[in-house]
UniProtKB/TrEMBL annotation:
InterPro entries: RuBisCO, RuBisCO_lsu_C, RuBisCO_lsu_C_sf. Residues 1-178 form the Ribulose bisphosphate carboxylase large subunit C-terminal domain. The keyword Plastid applies. Transmembrane segments: none annotated. Keywords: Chloroplast, Plastid. This is Ribulose-1,5-bisphosphate carboxylase/oxygenase large subunit. GO terms for molecular function: magnesium ion binding; ribulose-bisphosphate carboxylase activity. It holds the Pfam family RuBisCO_large. It comes from the Eukaryota. SUPFAM superfamilies: RuBisCo, C-terminal domain (SSF51649).
Length: 178
C-alpha cells in the first residue's frame, strides 16, 4: 500500500473477505504504520504476519546498519503476531546461537544476558506480548527434524518453495510436509 490509509483499507477488506491474517512488511512500511496496523488487527480479531523484506541491506552489513536482534526488538515493540526470523538451515541460514538469541528475544518474557547468543544485557519484557518466529526460505521436509530441534513447537514453519519444489510435484510435497 502506498499510504497508511490504504494499508488499513486493505486490512478492512481482508477482514470483510473472512481472511484470518494479513501480512505487512514492517521495514518497508515503517514502524509507525506497523503499529497502526497491529492495533487494527488486534481490535478486529486478525493475526498480523510480519515480513522483513529488505532486511539484508540493513542487518547483514558489517560496516553499517542494525543487527536483526535490534529489528526483532522493534517488531516486538511495534506489534505483530509472527515474523520471519531466519532458520539456521535453508537459504536464510544464520549462526545457530545468534539466531536462537533473537528467537528468545521475540518469544520470552525474560532473557538473561548471554553474549554467546548475542544477548548483551538481561531484558525483562514484562507483559509485552511475544512474537512467534517464522522459519522460512528454502526449507523442506528434510529440514523438519533440525527445525523442531532448533525452534521447538512454539514457532511457525513455512514451507513454500520446499513444498512446491518436491521432485514428484506439489501434492506429494504437501503430503511430505504434513
Amino acid at each position: 500500500a502506498g499510504t497508511c490509509e490504504e494499508m488499513i483499507k486493505r486490512a478492512v477488506f481482508a477482514r470483510e473477505l473472512g481472511a484470518p491474517i494479513v501480512m505487512h512488511d514492517y521495514l518497508t512500511g515503517g514502524f509507525t504504520a506497523n503499529t497502526s496496523l497491529a492495533h487494527y488487527c488486534r481490535d478486529n480479531g486478525l493475526l498480523l504476519h510480519i515480513h522483513r523484506a529488505m532486511h539484508a541491506v540493513i542487518d547483514r552489513q558489517k560496516n553499517h546498519g542494525m543487527h536483526f536482534r535490534v529489528l526483532a526488538k522493534a517488531v516486538r515493540m511495534s506489534g505483530g503476531d509472527h515474523v520471519h526470523a531466519g532458520t539456521v538451515v535453508g537459504k536464510l541460514e544464520g549462526e545457530r546461537e545468534i539466531t536462537l538469541g533473537f528467537v528468545d528475544l521475540l518469544r520470552l518474557d525474560f532473557i538473561e544476558k548471554d553474549r554467546s547468543r548475542g544477548i548483551y544485557f538481561t531484558q525483562d519484557w514484562v507483559s509485552l506480548p511475544g512474537v512467534l518466529p517464522v522459519a522460512s526460505g528454502g526449507i523442506h521436509v528434510w529440514h523438519m527434524p533440525a527445525l523442531t530441534e532448533i525452534f521447538g513447537d512454539d514457532a511457525v514453519l513455512q514451507f513454500g518453495g520446499g513444498t512446491l519444489g518436491h521432485p514428484w510435484g506439489n501434492a506429494p510435497g504437501a503430503v511430505a510436509n504434513r
